[in-house]
Amino acid sequence: MPKQLSYHFFTMNGTSPNYLGMWRHPEDRAVQHNDVDLWLDLARTAERACVDSIFIADLAGQQGPFAAGYDKVAERSINFPVCDPAALVAAMLTVTKDLGFVWTSSIIQYHPFTFARNISTLDHLSKGRVGWNIVTSYLENSYRNVGFPELTEHDERYRWAEEYLEVVYKLWEGSWEDGAIVADAARSVFADPSKIHRINHVGERYSVEGPHLAEPSPQRTPVLFQAGASDTGRAFAARNAEGIFVMAETPAAAPAVVKDIRDRLVAAGRRPDDAKIIQGISFVVGSTEEEAQRKAAELEECLDTEAAMVQSSGVFGIDLSDADPDLRLSTLVEEGRGSRGMIKFFVDSHPKGDRATVRDLEQYVTTRFRVVGSPETIADEVGRWAESGIDGLNIIQWTMPGSYVDFADHIAPVLQERGLMQRQYAPGTLREKLFADRGARLTEPHPADKYREMFAQRETAEIAG
Amino acid sequence: MPKQLSYHFFTMNGTSPNYLGMWRHPEDRAVQHNDVDLWLDLARTAERACVDSIFIADLAGQQGPFAAGYDKVAERSINFPVCDPAALVAAMLTVTKDLGFVWTSSIIQYHPFTFARNISTLDHLSKGRVGWNIVTSYLENSYRNVGFPELTEHDERYRWAEEYLEVVYKLWEGSWEDGAIVADAARSVFADPSKIHRINHVGERYSVEGPHLAEPSPQRTPVLFQAGASDTGRAFAARNAEGIFVMAETPAAAPAVVKDIRDRLVAAGRRPDDAKIIQGISFVVGSTEEEAQRKAAELEECLDTEAAMVQSSGVFGIDLSDADPDLRLSTLVEEGRGSRGMIKFFVDSHPKGDRATVRDLEQYVTTRFRVVGSPETIADEVGRWAESGIDGLNIIQWTMPGSYVDFADHIAPVLQERGLMQRQYAPGTLREKLFADRGARLTEPHPADKYREMFAQRETAEIAG
User: Distance (Å) from the C-alpha of residue B302 to the closest C-alpha of chain A?
Assistant: First the structure.
């Protein structure tokens, strides 16, 4: 029996989510991303295919400031404009029953008290189908939009994220004990005040009194995702994440990535399978190999390599738009230029390693992770990924919603036939669907668990004292 | 021809929005407020009745800290728990075409950069049907939830709100010029960068670089509502609001309230009809007077007067739960106890004036604004309100969704027959529906208008210089 993978549609509430330039493709409808029907249809398509979740990425600012300033960002639609993902989730949950929703929210966008309630509300409305992709913003403009003069230093961002998580764990897990809601009309007792706690968090960045304003939702803490690539990021993910997005170069390269993550999970006191490892991928499908190749060539014509290099310059923190194509990226690391962690991560995970050049990066940001072929060819490749040790695939769109309709119509049925994909949803919350035989809520050894009884115990102790 | 009023359903994403204690009523479903179907049905009911909007109030913290601390708040469900209203809006817009959505968001809950994008997203998805009720939080716990040691002083809160508005006006109105989006695939130009501007706001509380991450939505600025009762609050509303919630004691008392607001609008350089004045009201309807009275008595049995006094203590900033029922509230003002502005406002607007007592307040927070009777009796009373100079009614629920189903089934048809209520929606956005013959966007003399060309002009000036 092959390993059954989970599947996720990767998108963004904007005109140009991933493969830059695709907004120019005649079939792409991402420019109409403000039309709610586009999303309701996407949600129905995903659920029809038994896809596990729609994942909506986000940015809190503009890519840049490299390569012709910010002008190119607007002109070429480089992940810009980009609107709120959570509103889409609230809309899409109304037309689905089982589909999960995961979205990105940066610690700099929302105060954790407000954010925690937003998540609880959506977890309630969806009956426990939401997940949060935890990010710390890496763009200077994101920080300048919310009052910071500059980008916060990389490791400091993760310390910030740890405190942010501490606050939301306290609110989600600790503030309301199970059984706090009594709802006894005859006795006029809606809730038992002794089971609802202020959290009185006082930390480096936040002071939060509480209690959480929302009742405990089905999952309490949403399913936690993370995509950190740096060492600090991976360690953070190992401590907290239940889903980790990775970008292994090939199925052959995946086992090393997988092993690194499983080792880190164990080092963090968790079980090696406590986080699902989800690989990015894209598909171009045709009824024959020829048709698929024709389609791929047609899509490639719309690829905007210049825009992609502007985006990469932002991610790598250095202007690469005019760089020598033969420049080895490892020399940037040696010279201490740009965001060394990100560049080093790219170099380390690239098959060419230290010899990877700007030209290789160009290829990376355009056509990497693309599988082209008939449904059977694609299923063969997915089979190789399934054997590589990863747990799921995050499917990146070429066109919206074309790539996803293609997946549902042509690829999913073959994957299901081969046992690589579920034919029906497991019951329960998103957490229960992703992790068989676990409950709806996070449990020990996940760090959130220790916040569950934290305030109850404290008060008991106080009374005893 | 009688004056046609606008109608709004006033609710909250919580177990106990307004008439406290109603969660104990066998027909009330507010305790199930986390069930999205409750809201989708409510939205359909509202649209079937041709109601102008659903208005969702919100709190950023617990009522209090007076009267038995916060315990009563949980035990009696005093506006607690309370979840995010915006998520409901995103869900409800999927099943409606014309209904408007207005919700409360406090300036302390969201950073204006994030908030502006959330609003733009929902204005897009709803095709221009959203409104924002601007509030500054008055509860100590709300401030302590987001890092402030105590309640910010009343007038300072409004200064804060003015800067908040300045930021969001700049983002909504100024950041993107009309015509910025080109979407010319052949030329590879999605947007014209010269028409998209950083706002570079630097103020007392906020530094925001921009640009706005969302494309301009149909209304750009949502329809702005406000309910300030103090002198500062009224002045703020006169400068900015397009809908002002009032609580006149009777139709006879309304003209003075209406005149005050119209005068203030003119004093602020706006037209007297630039803001709709919307009065709070509730209905208990029966097919006969007797049936209605029976129903009212049954509802009254569920009223939790003690809870209502805890709530009032929070609003008035002083513990009134054990106060002498005959204590004149005006003495509190004289003695400088509690939130003088709020108490003074109550005293001034009460028919008994200076002689209004704690007992009168008790009556106010329980059954005031209640109209009981047959559909015809209720329509008579609405007719008196229509003659009083107000523009709309904000209908407060007794039970959820019972009060609103009753309104749609029994009251709206009679109001429509009498010409007191629209039979069909006007075309266009919420702003166009509420203000006939005006556009979708705010225009001069509203202060938002001056931000429209602000950045474009500046750049032109720079070039000229």
Answer: 9
User: Rounded to an integer, what distance in angstroms lies between the CA atom of residue B348 and that of residue B365?
Assistant: 16
DSSP state for residue A82 in the 8-state scheme: B
Name the 3-class secondary structure at A133.
strand
Q: How far is B68 from chain A (nearest CA, A)?
A: 11
**Residues ≥6 apart with Cβ < 8 Å to B233:** B158, B226, B227, B341
Nearest CA among B215, B239, B218 for reference residue B228: B239
**B74, A121: Cβ pair inside 8 Å?**
no
Alpha helices in B108-246 (DSSP H): 112-125, 140-145, 154-169, 231-240
- Output the pTM of the full model: 0.96
- ipTM surpasses 0.90: yes
As averages over each run of 10 residues, the pLDDT of chain A (465 residues) reads 95 94 96 98 98 97 74 93 98 98 98 98 98 92 94 90 98 97 96 96 97 98 92 94 93 95 97 97 97 96 89 82 87 84 81 88 80 98 98 97 98 98 98 95 95 77 47
Taking the CA of residue A142 and the nearest CA in chain B, the distance in Å comes to: 9
- A122 reaches B (C-beta below 8 A): yes
Residue (of A41, A57, A59, A58) closest to A99 by Cα position: A41
Q: Is the pLDDT of residue B463 over 50?
A: no
- pLDDT at res. A464: 47
What are chain B's domains?
Answer: 6-303+370-464 (3.20.20.30)
- Tokens standing for residue B156: 């300072």
Q: Say yes or no: B113 contacts chain A, CB-CB below 8 A.
A: yes
Query: Which residue in the set B94, B117, B217 is minimally distant from A91, CB to CB?
Result: B94
Contacts of B77 in chain A (CB under 8 A): 190-191
